[in-house]
Amino acid sequence: MQDLIAGRIDYLCDSPSTTLPQIEGNFVKILATTGPKRAATLPHVPTVHEQGLPFDVTAWQAIFLPKDTPTAIVQRLNQAVSETLDTPSVRNRFASIGEEVTPHERRGPEYLARFVVSEIERWSGPIRASGATMD
After folding, report:
1. Which stretches within 35-130 are classed as H helix?
2. Beta bridge partners of 47
3. Do 1 and 18 form a contact (C-beta atoms < 8 A)?
4. Domain parsing of the chain, residue ranges
5. In 3D, which of 60, 100, 94, 72 has the Cα closest to residue 80?
6. Distance (Å, rounded) from C-alpha 11 to C-alpha 23?
7. In the chain, which stretches have pLDDT less than 50?
8. What pLDDT is recorded for position 58?
9. pTM value?
């Protein structure tokens, strides 16, 4: 973000929580959002799909534990995180920084296991095609 503001780079894809203050401060200009729908905090900004680029890219976060963690601990932690996400103060804070709270159907270890596999499948082709390598 500092390089974008300073003019050392021309483009940056970033999350709403770090970009929104820069947009509101008129330090950067937003051209589009990359999610499947317009951002609630930026309803006037079109998505890349609306501008003719047929893709959606969104950031996601998860909590990972060692593979041998007892199921009871995994379930209890998942319940605590889910209950926290549902509190009004957390929901309001997420909304204020342009982030969305994960819906109930996308929470939990079973969903996460399927989702991670689908993300690996989704991105492995483009990564290979790009020629990027791990250094």
Report:
1. 71-85, 88-96, 109-130
2. 33
3. yes
4. 1-58, 60-135
5. 72
6. 14
7. none
8. 84
9. 0.77
